[in-house]
Amino acid sequence: MKVVMKFGGSLLASPGGIPRVSRVISKASKNMKVVVVISALDDVTDLLLHAATNARTWDSTQVIHFIDTIRGTHSQPLTEMELRQATYNEAVDHLEELLDDLKLTLSGVSILRELTPRSNDLLLSFGERLSLVVVSAGLRKAGIAIEALTGGDAGIVTDDSFGEASPEVTKTRRGVKEKLLPLLTKGVVPVVAGFIARSESGEMTTLGRGGSDYTATLLADAIAADEVWIWTDVDGILTADPRIVKSARVIEELSYAEAEEMGFFGAKNMHPLALAPARKAGIPVRIRNGFKPDRLGTLINPRERKSSAIAKSVALVGNVGIVTVSGETLVGRPGTAAKIFELLGKAGVNVLMISQSVSESNISAVVRKGSLERAASALSEGLSRVGISAGVKVEPDVSVLAVVGAGMQGTPGIAAKVFSAVAATGVNVRMIAQGSSELNISFVVASRDSEKAVKALHESVVLGK
To answer: 189-217, pLDDT tens digit by residue?
Structure first.
């Protein structure tokens, strides 16, 4: 049996995290062929993103302070693992080489006052590359035969779309097979830094946020793995946010389609893009808890099984707002909706949800709160330039709720049950959307009412009370 295991940053950075991960890998590698994918240590990617945003205004003192912070984050687990002196020295030397490269990268950005997409990818790649040094030292201490590789070294080839590169699937399959299968045959565990890859021209590229999961499924597809195990710090995918709903429970099984819907709506789940290689290859994915490795977690597979409950999960997306375009000039005017979304796209605004009245007199879109004013400005100025006289209104304090599950497909009365449960709590629904798949119903409420609505829906449509 071949398994690709991906370990998240919060798990790796937890007290005793790397020895704990080592035990999981050691046990599994005794009776199966294992490929390991690792993320950056917890919070390191966010620190690097902060540096990417601010390094253009930093002086040399600020660069050195940042390097010291990153050094401390990675030196601490090396010290705590009580490695043999030779292993420790080797890891520290490799760490310092990478930190020198990181310092040069940041200094270049600071001097030039410019960060290109190519340099941004190089900067962000240091999170996983530094993590690889630390984790590899711990696995070697545990007596596991490993070979440490970046995603590019492992054979993942992408285009040159820096920031969110797309894999060249055929070349990646060939490259990964050539690199990893001989190692597995020899009983060696490949340990691959997730998130990063290499373009055909040899440049460092990244797969976007959530890219370590994407790395795992790309490798699994290439080597025809039997399963992918995503090790996290939770028991699996839950029916609701446990911070809001105390009775939230682990969902034992989801279809790929259900998991993708939940990923879009912010559940602690894989990014939908990361699921795609596993879905196409029919490879099951398990979300498991690294602190409780005996638990099976949530299985994501091709089967779409309806449960006795109407839905499997209630997801909540906060920190969003509504921008609405309205006016008589919108009515019966072909191409207006296309123009609205073209303007939003050019302004770099991602639209999460759309609603339009049948009268055609208004169109509403849900966007991230941080993009709300930019969206309104782009629409006001852009529509005016093309002769469309319309009002633009923003509502900043709203949240999106999504009810997800295959049990809603082809079942009459689902919407009535959902909105009756919400209405019974005195919550007003501002906007509604449902896809033709019938796997989710999404709607918008005032932020102050969101948690109350989540609790009511969980009781009514997930627990079936």
So the answer is: 999 999 999 999 999 999 976 689 999 99
Find all residues with CB under 8 Å of 411, minimum gap 6, and list them. 310
- The domain spanning residue 218 has which CATH number? 3.40.1160.10
35-71: per-residue pLDDT in tens? 999 999 989 999 999 999 899 999 999 999 999 999 9
Determine the angle formed by the axes of helices 44-54 and 117-141, rounding to 10 degrees: 160
Under a CB-based contact definition with an 8 Å cutoff, are residues 347 and 375 in contact? yes
Average pLDDT of the chain, as a whole number: 90
Report CA torsion sign: 209, 212, 217, 221: positive
Same domain, 228 and 327: no
**pLDDT at residue 272, as a whole number:** 77
Crossing angle of helices 169-185 and 211-223, rounded to 10° = 70
| End-of-domain residue from the set 208, 233, 258 | 233
Which of 203, 233, 263 delimits the end of a domain? 233
Phi, psi of 459 (to 5 degrees): -65, -40
pLDDT for residue 408: 76
> For residue range 310-341, what is the model confidence (pLDDT) as tens digits?
788 998 988 899 999 887 767 776 777 888 88
In residues, how long is the chain?
Answer: 465
Contact yes or no for 430/399 (Cβ under 8 A): no
What would the mean pLDDT of 164-189 be, rounded to a whole number?
95
The amino acid that residue 290 corresponds to is G
Q: In what order do the strands lie in the sheet with 157-158?
A: 157-158, 196-199, 204-206
Q: Over 60: is that where the pLDDT of 267 sits?
A: no
* Domain extent for 330: 313-462
